[in-house]
Amino acid sequence: MGHSQPSSEISVPIINLSGIQDLKTSKSSSALVQKLIKNIGNACIQWGFFYVTEHGIDPKLINDVLKVSNEFFKQPKIYKKTVQRQPNNYRGYTDSELTKQKVDWKEAYDFGAEYPAEVNTLENGIDLDAGTNQWPSDIPHFKETLLQYFSEMHSLSSVLMDLIFMSLNVDPRTMKHHFNEATDTSFCRLNYYPVCADANRNLGVGPHADAGVLTVLLQDNNVTSLQVQKDGNFHDVPPIPGTFVINIGDMMQVWSNGIFQAPVHRVLANSESERLSVPFFFNPSYETNVEPLNQSVSNEHPRRYRSINWGIFRRGRILGDYADHGEEIQIYQFEIRNDNDTEMTPNVDQN
Ligand SMILES: O=C(O)CCC(=O)C(=O)O
Ligand SMILES: [Fe+2]
């Protein structure tokens, strides 16, 4: 098949976040913040992808995250498998993740906040185990470095989400209850892409849109592998030192009633260089029902989606990543096509 590099004159926008200081001191009407809201709103409409600079995250923490990640992945497989993901615990190590039923050319390690025990039991009868962190022994500072990074990524994501909601004229305070650093379903992933001899016939990660609200991605500076699809073509998203790459996910697409589209992206395999990346996936609480917000629905732009229970949606995705259970759950299954199908709910428990 082959995944030839596109030559593209247009590229993903770069947004300077220095204005978020004003937001923190609640000067949301400052000219800088208003400009930021406009730029981020435009980037979400045009790409759903953007870089951020001046984000305030300590470069030493970023280096430490890449360092401990590298130390983990260079261990022998037998060591990494001591913290392997299990069917009842999706946190930990994997070398056999699937995207759309195809194995990705990568290894990964997932972790999240250290949940209070009671979060794992849900009242609605759905088995949605939040997962338990599995920390490898013997890698100095692994756990504390990653938990600190998780916390900082959660804060940065909250600010970005506020700005995105403001661009839709939604008061961000009305959305805060869906997110809680200790108990929501946000998680962080370390990705390691080994050198691949047959890079043209493999992908690091196959084309997909992220399921949640937004993703903050750290890439190492080794190689350009990430690509985003726009108007039918894939565009390179090269690493830019000191930046993060932000993309919105399916739940933001639904909240915005399709004003924003969660962008399809993929990761190429590389025959010369290995690569590390660290996405943080900002996700709401399990019980959150996501549906188009009133501010994004109008006569000209009628409601496009039924309500989606995030817990059920997420569980469908996790099952799809794990094993071939048929087609993964996707938001188009919740699209409203005409007035008669609003009661339909897809059955995600196919097995
Ligand atoms: O490694 C990357 O650059 C992106 C990875 C990705 O898209 C994902 O893990 O969802
Ligand atoms: Fe992704």
TrEMBL record:
Organism of provenance: Orchesella dallaii
Protein name (database record): Fe2OG dioxygenase domain-containing protein
Source organism phylogeny: Eukaryota, Metazoa, Ecdysozoa, Arthropoda, Hexapoda
Family as reported in the entry's similarity comment: Belongs to the iron/ascorbate-dependent oxidoreductase family.
Any Pfam family matching the protein: 2OG-FeII_Oxy
Domain of life: Eukaryota
Residues of the Fe2OG dioxygenase domain: 184-284
Cross-referenced InterPro entries: DIOX_N, IPNS-like_FE2OG_OXY, IPNS-like_sf, Oxoglu/Fe-dep_dioxygenase_dom, Plant_2OG-oxidoreductases
Keyword Iron: yes
Signal peptide: none
UniProtKB keywords: Iron, Metal-binding, Oxidoreductase
